[in-house]
Amino acid sequence: MSKTTVEKVKETKILAELSVMVAVAAALHFLSRVLLPFLHLPEGGSITAASMVPILWFALRRGLRWGLEAGVVFGLVDLALPQSYFISNPIEILLDYPIAFGALGLAGAFKKQPLLGVGVGIAGRFVFHFISGIVFFYTYAWSGWNPVLYSAAYNATYLVPEFVISAVIIYIIDKRKLLGIYL
Fold first, then answer.
1. What is the pLDDT of residue 86?
2. CA–CA distance, 20 with 16 (Å, rounded to integer)
3. How many separate domains does the chain show?
């Protein structure tokens, strides 16, 4: 069954929006690396200038499928940006980039509850970085820490602030939308 012209136009519009949101997210992430290098952790992860917000907002607008796709694309774009740390294993690449960032798209399952969506999306990202930390970065565990606690603490040091930043901005955007003011 072929798609109607209306469906093709709608899909093209969504793909264009996805591209713009990924570009904005990547630009925010890159600018954060350049302007806020002190917020970057040695084995990866950083507090950014709200770089996840465009992906989370897109997911909340367009739903789970499109949100997951945007997150995966953003993860691949982020992987292509210059890195200040090394990649240890091909499986780690999958966990830390397309899968972890793809999890941000889980927000799309909570269109009517945007803050819950932000929490679920970032929690999904946390889970994959957490697993990667246990499996691939356990040798970096702080003295006296087991790898599980180390990975949880390490990833929480940047994802908890990222959640707060993202939740505040999504809340503001959502309230403006309810007032009829669109960004």
1. 64
2. 6
3. 1
Under a CB-based contact definition with an 8 Å cutoff, are residues 25 and 55 in contact? yes
Write the CATH number for 155: 1.10.1760.20
pTM of the model: 0.90
In a domain, 183, yes or no: no
Half-sphere exposure of 121 (CA within 13 A, CB side): 38
Q: How far apart are CA 177 and CA 181, in angstroms?
A: 5
Given a cut of 90, whether residue 42 has pLDDT beyond it is no
The share of the chain scoring above pLDDT 70, in percent, equals 92
Listing DSSP states for 48-103 in one string gives -SSTTHHHHHHHHHH-HHHHHHHHHHHHHHHHHS--SS----HHHHHIIIIIHHHG
For 154, phi and psi rounded to 5 degrees? -60, -50
Q: Which domain holds residue 90?
A: 5-178
Which has more confidence, 106 or 136?
106
Q: What is the DSSP string of 126-161?
A: HHHHHHHHHHHSGGGPPTT--HHHHHHHHHHHHHHH
> 117 and 82 in contact (C-beta within 8 Å)?
no
The answer to whether the beta carbons of residues 109 and 64 sit under 8 Å apart is yes
